[in-house]
Amino acid sequence: MYLLYPDVHISARRKAKLFISMPPNGHEHRYFTPSANTVVRLVILLAVAATAIGGVVAFEVFKSPFVTRAGIVEPQPVPFSHKHHVSDDGIDCRYCHTTAERSAFAGIPPTETCMNCHSQLWTTSEMLEPVRESFRSGQPLRWKRVHNLPDFVFFDHSIHVAKGVGCSTCHGRVDKMQLTYQFAPLTMEWCLSCHRQPEEFIRPREEVFNMNWEPPPDQAEEGARLAKQYHVKDVQTLTNCSTCHR
Amino acid sequence: MIDRREFLRLMGASLALAGTSCNVSPPVEEIVPYVREPLDIVPGEPLFYSTVTTLGGYALGILVESHLGRPTKIEGNPLHPSSLGATDVFAQASVLSLYDPDRSKDVLRNGQISTWETFSSDIRKIIAAQRQNGGAGLHLLTETITSPTLAFQIGELQKTFPGAVWHQFEPIDRSNERKGAISAFGTDVETVYRFDKADVIVSLDADFLLGRPGSVRYARDFIQRRRIRQGETGLSRLYVLQTTPTITGAAADHCIAMLPAEIGSFAQELISMSSPDARRSAIIEDLAAHRGSSLVIAGRSQPPAVHAIAHAVNSALGNVGQTVYYTETVAANSVDSTESLSALVNDLDAGRVETLLVLGGNPVYNAPADLHFAESLRKAGWAAHLSLYNAETSAHCEWHLPATHELEMWSDARSFDGTASIIQPLIEPLFNGRSPHELLAMFSDSPQAAGYDVVRRFWRTHGIGTVQKTVPAGPVPRTEANVGSANANSSSAEDNIADRANSFEASWKQALRDGYIRDTAFSPKNVSASAGPFELTGSRPTGDQRSFVLIFRADPSVYDGRFANNGWLQEMPKPLTKLTWDNAALMSPATAERLGIENDIANTGGSHGQVIADVVELNLNGVTLRAPAFILPDHADNSITVSLGYGRDRAGQLGNGTGFNAYALRNSNAMWSAAGLNVAKTTERFSLACTQNHTNMEGRDLVRIATLAEYEQDQNFAKRDADDPEKQISLYPGWEYNGHAWGMAVDTASCIGCNACVAACQAENNIPVVGKTEVMRAREMHWIRIDHYYENGATLLQPVMCQHCENAPCELVCPVEATTHSSEGLNEMTYNRCVGTRYCSNNCPYKVRRFNFFGFADYETPLVQLQRNPQVTVRSRGVMEKCTYCVQRIQNAKIKAEVEGRELRDGEIVTACQQACPTEAIVFGDINDPDSRVTRLKREATNYGLLAELNTRPRTTYLATVRDRNEKMMEKE
To answer: Where are the beta strands (DSSP E) in chain A?
Structure first.
C-alpha cells in the first residue's frame, strides 16, 4: 500500500529510502526517485503473473488426482478384484450391477449375490470372512464409495447405457483392475468433453458391456451414425444445465 | 503485541499449513448394499404405495412415494373416489409430521420414561379389575372413527366388558349435520353431493372446497362446471352466504356476507320460497328455475334446523337422487360429539370413571372450555393417552403412549362416500409407537396381536373377497354377512375354505394395490325428508350496537391444532388472509372502523412481510382473550372470526406459543358462533407475518374476468396487444426449439386457492421453512404463491410461479450465468454457479425468485433429512432458487421414454403442483406438440400472459375467468 500512498506510513517510508529523498534544508518535500516507476511496474507485472500462475496451478490441482481421487485406491472391507471376476471368471457387469440398464443407479450387489458363488467356492477363505459374516448376521457390507459425484449432480446410468456409452468409457478397464479405483477425473470438464462431442465415444449398444471394445478407425463417422440412430440429443440439449443439475 | 512482520509470518505459515492439511477432495462416503435385496426395489427408482390419510376420521386416497423405504411425498390416488389423483394441503403436509423430531418417542408414566412392558403389566391388572364388574368403570374416548376394524374391536371390547362406555369427541365435528338429518329424516344419514350435476348451488355457510369430508373430490366435480372452453357452455352458478370469507366464497358468483342468524332467516325463506329482499328472492327464483339440477348445502357451523331445511328444500326441488343423495353414516357410530364428551365429564365428576383410555385426540386442549375437561380428567382412577405427541392431554394422564403415524401402521378407514380402504404402512414405526388397534388388542384374548393381523383378520371374516371375479356367476347379494356364502357353489367344504383363502388373498392384494376396497361405497339410501317446520332453536346470535358475534372456524392451516407443529402448514399463507404462523381476530373493514382498529403495513425494506395489527381484547361471558385484529374484506359486519388450533403450549418447538387459543372462548352450547362478545381495543400492537398485504390490482390486468354475457359478446376479452405474437417485437434474436418446448397453462377460473400446490411444491422440491421472523422480512421460500385480488365484488385468485419467460429479465443480469435459457425453453437455475448477487431477483417482474439469506435448509437433523426428495438438490446459504417446472420430473420422464425407445406421451410429465391440484387448474406440457393439452388450452380465446406488456413472453400463461353472474343480483347489488 505504501508504494502508492507514500504519506500513509511514516515508519515504512523511512525504511524505503529508494522512493523518497529528503532535501537537506529540512523543508519536507517528497518525490519518487526515477527508478520507482520501474519497480512499481515490475511489481504489478509480477502480481498479475503470480495470480495467473496461481490460477493455472489451482486449476490443474483441482483437476489432478489429488482432488479428484482418480486412480487412488481406497481400502475396502474385502479386497474385491474386478480383474479376477471379470477377466478370469468372465462374469458380466450386469450380474452384479443389475440396474445399470434401467435405473440411475447401477446397483451394488447385495451380499446374497456374492454368496451365490461363495457359498460353494472359497468357503474357508479368510479374505471372504466379512462377506460370510454379513450373510450370517444380516449386517450389510460397508464399501467405500469409489465414484462420488457432488450432490448437485444427477447422473443416470440407464440413459448412458441406452445411448451406447460403454462401461469402460467412464470406468476404464475395470477388467484389469486388481483393486477398484476411479478411472476418470469426473470433473464437469470431463463430462462435457463427451456431452459436447458424443460421436467420439458412442459405440454400438451391444458393445456397451464389452471391456475390450476399441473405437474403430472411423469412429468419427461411425459414432455420428450411431448418435443419429440412437436419437442422441443435439449438443444444446446435452449441455443444458438441467441435464445434470436439478 | 506482535508486529506486522511477525503477523505476516504467522499468517503465511498458517496458510501454508492450511493448504497442506485441508483435504480439498470430496469426503469419502460409504455405499451400503442390501444383504438380501427385496424383489421390488430398484435403487434409484421410487416406489409408490397406495394408502389413505384421514382428517377428522374421513379418508383421502393417496399414493406415497418411497425412496429405498423412506416415504418422501404424498400424491393423490387416481383410482380412489375421494381423490381422483388430487390431494389437499393437509395430506401433502402429513409426510412432514411423520418425521417431526418432536413426536413422542417414549412411553411415559407420570412424566417419567417407562416401557410398553410395564404398561402392559399395568393394563393386565386393570383388565382383571374391570372383569370383576363387567367393565362398569371402563371408558374409552376416541375421535371420530370410520375404521371398520377399530369399530369392530371396540364392539368386541364392549362384549367383553358390557359396562364399558365409548365416548367420541371431535372439535371439528358434524353434530349439527347429524341433528339436522335426524330432524329431517328421523335418522342420521350422510349427505353426498354431486356438484358436477348442479346448475345452481346455494351454500349456506358451507365451505365445501376445503377441509371437509370429500372436499377434494367435490372441488373436482364443482370446477368441472365452472370453466369455459371453446364450444362448451353451461357454467354452474354458485351463491354463497357466509359470515367468514372462505375459498368457497371466493369461488362464488355471488357471495353475500351475513351473520349466522341472517343465514338462518334466509333458510326459512327457502321453505316458503319467497323473500322480501330482492337479492334473496333472486336466489330463490334461480333455485326454483332449476328443479332437479340445483343444490342447497348447509355448512357444519349452521344449526341443525338449517341442515333440515336444506334437506327439505333439496327434496322439494327434486334434487334428491340428482345432485344429492343420502347414505348410511360413514362414522362407525355417529354421535353428538359434544354431548358424548359432556357425558364423560359427568361420569368423571361423579367418580364413575376408574379406567379411561384416550385414543388420539387432544381434549384437554380442544374440549369446550365450559366443560373444564382438564380438571375432570384428574378425577379418573387411571388414564392413558395414545398420541403422536406428548400433548396437553398426555400431561393430564397417568400414562402417555406414543402412537404410530398413519404412514407407519396398518389400519383402515372410510371416505365421504363410504368407500373403505386399507391403510398400509410405508415404514416401520420410527419411534416406539403402537397403533390404536394394537392398544385395543391388549384388552382381547391375543394381547400381543400386531396391527397387521388385527386388520387382516377383520377383513377376512367381514367382507373383503365377496365381490371377486372368482366368485361363481350369478347374483350375489353384497352384504357383510355373506362372505361365507360367496362360494356356496363349491363342491366340498375343503374346497370352499381353500377358495375362500385364495379369494381373500387375491382381493386383499387387490385392495392394497388399488388403494380402496371395491364396491364398498355405500349405496344411496331411501329416506324422505320431512317438510318441517324446523325451529331455529338455541341462541340466534345477532350483532347489535353493543356486542359482537364471535365465530369459530377450523384453521385452514393447522386445522383443529393437530398440525400445529408442522412447519409447512404453519408457514402456509392461509387462503385470503395470507397470514402465517399466527391466527388473528378477523373482522370486516366496517367493524374495524367502528372499533378504531388499524392494520399498518410495513413497507420499509426488510420488513415488508409484516402487518402491524392492533390487539383487541375479546370478552365472552367474562372470559377474556387478547388477539391481534386483522381486517378482512367481505367479512360480515359486527362479527369477529377466530380460528381454532393455535396457542398451544405442548405442540412442539414450532407450534408452541404461536397464535392465541380460541378454544378458551368456545363453549359447548355455542360451538361455532356465540353472541354477546365484547371487544375492546388495547394499546398493544402485534406484528403478523403476512405474505401479501396489497390486494388491489391498481388498474392492471393481472387477473382478467368477464361475465358470461361479456364473454359471448367478445371471446377475446382477455387479449391485449402484448398477447398478439404479431405485435411482439424484440431486439434480441428469438430462440429456436427443435425438440420439446415446455409450457404451462393456469386456469384462474379453476383455481380455488386451497394451497395444495404450495405444499406439494414444498415437499417435492425440498423447500425449507424459514420461520415467522424471516417471513416478516418477506423471505419465505415458496416457489409458488397464490395471489388474490378484490375486484368488483369478486375475489380473484392467481397462482404465480416462475413464468419461464422467453425474454427472461433475470437471465440477462446474472454475472455468472447461473440462470440460463435451456434448449427446451426452461429458465434454468444452476445452484452451484450462483454467487448470490440477487440481481436476477431484482430484475424479475413477477417476484418469484427466492434467496437463501441464511442456511434455511436443515443439514443437522437426520430425521428431517429422511423426508428430502433425493432427485432435487438441497440448497445452501447464499443461493438463489425458484420454480424449475419440476425439472427433475421432466428429466426422469425423458430418460424413461428414451430408454424404452419411444416418444414422450402428453401428460407423462406432471409437475408437483399440477398433480396435487384438486381442480386441474394447472396443466403442463410440450407446446411444440400441437395436440398436447397445454397447447390446446393456450389456443383458448381466454389465454393471456401475465405482465406480457413487459415483453417477457412468459411460457406460463393464464386463462381468464368467466362467471355466469345473475343479472338480477347485479342490478340489486
So the answer is: 143-144
CATH 3.40.50.740 fits B107-173+333-450, yes or no: yes
* pLDDT tens digits, B696-741: 888 888 999 999 889 989 989 999 888 888 777 878 788 889 889 9
Residues 6+ apart with CB under 8 A from B589: B631, B633
Fill in the amino acid letter for B97. S
Select the more confidently predicted residue: A32 or B372.
Answer: B372
Which residues on A lie below 8 Å from B874 (Cβ)? 151
What is the nearest CA distance from A238 to chain B, expressed in angstroms?
A: 9
A173 and A229 in a common domain: yes
Grid cell of B567 as nine digits: 412447519
CB-based contact B24 A67, cutoff 8 Å = yes
User: What are phi and psi for residue B591, nearest 5 degrees?
Assistant: -65, -40
The answer to whether the CB atoms of A99 and B828 lie below 8 A apart is no
Cell of B471: 366368485
- Yes or no: say if B961 and B226 are a contact pair by the CB < 8 Å rule: no
Given a contact cutoff of 8 angstroms between Cβ atoms, the answer to whether B791 and B952 are in contact is no
Please give the C-alpha separations between residue B346 and each of B164, B377, B853, B965, in angstroms, as whole numbers.
15, 11, 55, 52
Helix axes B175-185, B304-316, angle to 10 degrees: 50
Check CB contact of B872 with chain A, cutoff 8 Å: yes
Same domain flag for A41 and A150: no
Read off the pTM. 0.90
Query: Closest-CA residue in chain B for A163?
Result: B899
Q: Rounded CA gap, B357 and B359, in Å?
A: 6
Domain that includes residue A195, residue range? 71-108+145-244
Chain-wide mean pLDDT for chain A?
87
Across the interface, do B32 and A104 touch by the CB < 8 Å criterion? no
Tell me if B31 and A62 make a contact (CB, 8 A cut-off). no
Q: What is the pLDDT of residue B15?
A: 61
d(CA B195, CA B297) in angstroms, rounded, equals 10
Residue A48 and residue A160 in one domain: no
Question: Are B28 and A112 an interchain contact pair (Cβ–Cβ within 8 Å)?
Answer: no
Q: Using DSSP, state whether B869 is helix, strand or coil.
A: coil
Give A24→chain B minimum CA distance, Å: 31
Q: What integer best gives the mean pLDDT of chain B? A: 89
A1: which residues sit within 8 A by CB, 6+ positions away? A8, A9
Interface of B with A in 35-54 (CB under 8 A): 35-37, 42-45
Q: Is the dihedral of CA A183, A185, A190, A195 positive or negative?
A: positive
Shared domain for A94 and A178, answered yes or no, is yes
**What local confidence, expressed as pLDDT, does residue B608 receive?**
84
B928 CB within 8 Å of a chain A CB: no
Superfamily of domain B176-327: Dimethylsulfoxide Reductase, domain 2 (3.40.228.10)
Look at residue A29 and tell me if it is in a domain.
yes
Choosing among 3.30.70.20, 3.40.1160.10, 3.40.190.10, 3.55.40.20, the CATH entry for B705-728+736-963 is 3.30.70.20
Q: Name every chain A residue with its beta carbon within 8 A of the beta carbon of B824.
A: 237, 240
ipTM: 0.86
Q: How far apart are CA B953 and CA B944, in angstroms?
A: 10
Q: Per the structure, how many domains does chain A have?
A: 3
Angle of CA points B209, B213, B219, to nearest 5°: 30
The answer to the question of residue A212 being in a domain is: yes
Considering the domain architecture, whether residues A102 and A114 belong to the same structural domain is answered as: no
A71: closest CA of chain B, how far (Å): 13
The answer regarding whether domain B548-690 maps to CATH 2.40.40.20 reads yes
CB burial of residue B112 (10 Å; 0-12, 13-18, 19+): exposed
Which pLDDT tens digit goes with each residue over A170-222? Answer: 999 999 999 999 999 999 999 999 999 999 999 999 999 999 999 999 999 99
End-to-end CA distance of chain B: 82
